[in-house]
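Bench log. Compound arrived from synthesis this morning; before running ITC I wanted a structural hypothesis for how pyridoxal-5'-phosphate sits in the protein. Inputs:
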Amino acid sequence: MEDPSKIVREHTFGTWRKQKGWEPINIVKADGVYFYDSAGKKYLDFSSQLVNVNLGYGNNHVIKEIEHQLENLQYISPAFATETRAKAASSLLQVMPRNLTKFFFSTSGTEANEGAIKISRLVKKPSYKVVARYRAYHGSTLASMSLTGDYRRWFTEPNTMQGVVRIPEPYCYRCPLNLKYPDCGIACATYLDYVIKNEGNVASVIIEPITGTNGVVVPPKEYLPIIRKITSENNVILITDEVMTGWGRTGEWFAVNNWNVEPDILTTAKGASASYLPIGITAVNKEIAEFFEDNIFAHGHTFEAHPVTLAAIPAVIEEYKRLDLLSHVKAMGQYLGDRLKELKERHKSIGDVRGMGLFWAIELIKDSKKTPFGTYEDKYEGKSTPVDVLTKRLMNDGIYVFGGPSWLVISPPLIISKEDIDIGIEKIDETLNSLDKQFT
Ligand SMILES: Cc1ncc(COP(=O)(O)O)c(C=O)c1O
């Protein structure tokens, strides 16, 4: 066969980039927390790909359950019931926040959010506005892209969905309101009340409990409870986007559990199947579920509730439990966090280290004024930043880490061991010396 990298490069799209300069590495196999290219080179997956390969590669139980379903019933219209669908729903009831009792199954995080927005607008009609944040990613189709606050939305403008209103985010390292925690009184959260009352017609608020691709921003402990209180008082639906933060990533089944918050709608994907198959889930509370008893649930896809994808959900939950991954994540998360904080002591180019569980970012700066190495504008223009050079260098050294304009996201598969964390940290440690040299 002609070089697969060449065919892939010429006949398929590399996403969120100019096609020129794309040289995709041909990956042939993977096992545990490692994947391998066609030359036999081994890479430690230090980001779980896109923060989604939560169980690592080659989990036999999940593979067997999927194979079994494929042999039994590979597809049936979503209008029918199947045992698999019942089992997926029952197993979700064991792990989701207790108030969420009904599920819509799709095939991606983007679709899970599209569903959530449509549901919130149907329930709250004629209210239609959705409050979102700047430092946010919710997906790549019309509604989810319009809610996305980062540079990826700019490409779509002006053809975005109407009715999106923004509030600032709890990004304490660079507070958008120029305030300091805790004297700020969590103004970024309390301001939501003002926005909802003055906008009028607000149907819902969508928030990543911990901002993901935009730099793993962990909010102060008061933040999410305040947002919950304000949305309840104003009778507005709270949607938490747990596409990245769900499924043990933070040491809890879902990140909202860290603050004892129950959203009205929770969206998730990625870790729901540990990415053995594409899955999206929109989970809603009883009140929303009951609304649709006498109102049409005006939504659906051909691949909605696909039996083979649903077979992965209970299998994955069984594995999370069998491997006691929530406890493992808490222990490994503490270790990883401590090791990253040690790096900060040694490298002046590290401005901030933040995270929870196995979900961390190091934010990189090029001077004492916290100037970033790259910006959203650079990304929008397709410019390569020093952080891109750094991640490329790490790949050469056998460590896969995904980066933003001026940060690295360190989020290994939840099964990672201390020894493998050490391997990743040591390589990052060495590689950061090159950025330190650019620090002024
Ligand atoms: C918080 C969040 N929401 C939504 C999405 C979109 O999910 P998908 O890429 O599966 O469509 C992502 C993807 O990274 C995400 O991180």
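What the model suggests: The pocket of pyridoxal-5'-phosphate is lined by residues 50, 108-110, 113, 137-139, 208, 212-213, 241, 243-244, 269 (CB under 6 Å). The longest strand covers residues 100-106.
ITC booked for Thursday regardless.
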